[in-house]
Amino acid sequence: NMRIGILTSGGDCPGLNAVIRGAVLNGIKSYGHEFVGFLDGWRGVVEGDVIELPRHAVRGISKQGGTILGTSRTNPYEGDRGGPENIKETLQRLGIDAVIAIGGEGTLAGAKRLTEAGLDIVGVPKTIDNDLDATDYTFGFDTANQIAVEAIDRLRTTGESHHRCMVAEVMGRHVGWLALHAGMAAGAHAILIPEQSVTMAQINTWVREAHDRGRAPLVVVAEGFVPEGAEAPHSERGLDTFGRPRLGGIGERLAPLIEDATGIETRATVLGHIQRGGVPSAFDRVLATRLGMAAVDSVQEAAWGTMVSLRGTNINRVPFQAALNNLKRVPQARYDEARILFG
Ligand code: F6P
């Protein structure tokens, strides 16, 4: 039997704890393995900061949001103790034979490099944005979508009372999966996503059409959307501490433009991190549990450099690279389908 280390890295996501529990239970029950958790993602790996994860440590955690291990955006190649040789030594000192890395693009890219340098790592894909390729859904997306829909339904009733246009900004820096699904579920009159360029004139037309039919227009916009011809919203805001462009609150920018052009009173709401918090949905708990269990099977079979993924209803295994080649964007056909419902 082996001693396996688990880490959660990058932005948190409902379902992370269910992955941890699935891995620990399958590992203990099927193979007699032992588990430890690295604290705060790669920071815990680099600094050798671990906690033991016996069976009782994961009792009842699949219904908890966040991650019991903590997370960070630390890069495993940073600092004096980073890099494959140092990490190998640290793992040896702690008696850890293999690592399960739960994370998004950045985490998996780091894991890939380390695996190529000889470390024994398998991955579990994670993001509420659902933008990782080579997996049909990522856990966390269903929960974030449900939270967004509940919030947007509430915006709807207040919007209707006041005959206002309501703009709901949802997460999605690079892709519009959340906006598309939450917008469709909530019956939005316009859905705006980074993949699709739409003019202000078109947006205003959809808003007017809904208003003319006596509805309170509802616009669902992904944070990464930029109206055609407009400056990127982050252009004047520079980079954040982690070198990523600071997004500029597209909802707040759209609202006055819509109001001025249509004469319809308009309010914007940014849902923000509410979408990443709290209890995971049943769908996400099941998906996350199965992925965690399958990751231990990957370790057992020494499938280093691979990530578990959902294809249809089956969990399978793909090389890290398969998830890193491209972002999984909303296909044109999915937007065209939703667009029929706008206005
Ligand atoms: O990738 C998940 C995500 O929630 C994005 O939708 C969002 O742009 C970003 O993370 C926010 O990151 P942070 O929590 O670091 O502000």
3D structure, described in words:
It is a single chain. The protein has 343 residues and is of the alpha/beta class. The protein has helices at residues 16-31, 42-47, 84-93, 105-116, 141-162, 177-186, 200-212, 250-262, 282-300, 320-324, 332-339; strands spanning 3-8, 34-38, 50-52, 98-103, 121-125, 165-170, 190-192, 218-222, 266-270, 306-311, 314-319. It has a five-stranded mixed beta sheet, with helices on both faces. Strand 4 (98-103), helix 4 (105-116) and strand 5 (121-125) form a beta-alpha-beta unit. The model has no long low-confidence stretch (mean pLDDT 95). The site of 6-O-phosphono-beta-D-fructofuranose (F6P) has 9 residues, from loops.
Distance between the termini: 60 Å
Radius of gyration: 22 Å
Bound ligand species: 6-O-phosphono-beta-D-fructofuranose
Mean pLDDT: 95
Output the strand order for the largest sheet.
3-2-1-4-5
- Tell me about the largest β-sheet: 5 strands, mixed
Indicate the percent of residues in helices.
25-40%
Described by the principal axes of the CA atoms, the overall outline is elongated
Structural class: alpha/beta
User: Approximately what portion of the residues adopt beta-strand conformation?
Assistant: 15-25%
| Distinct helical segment count | 11
Elements, N to C (H/E): EHEHEHEHEHEHEHEHEHEEHH
Low-pLDDT sequence parts: none
Strand runs, count: 11
Family: Belongs to the phosphofructokinase type A (PFKA) family. Mixed-substrate PFK group III subfamily.
Protein name: ATP-dependent 6-phosphofructokinase
Pathway: Carbohydrate degradation; glycolysis; D-glyceraldehyde 3-phosphate and glycerone phosphate from D-glucose: step 3/4
Subcellular location: Cytoplasm
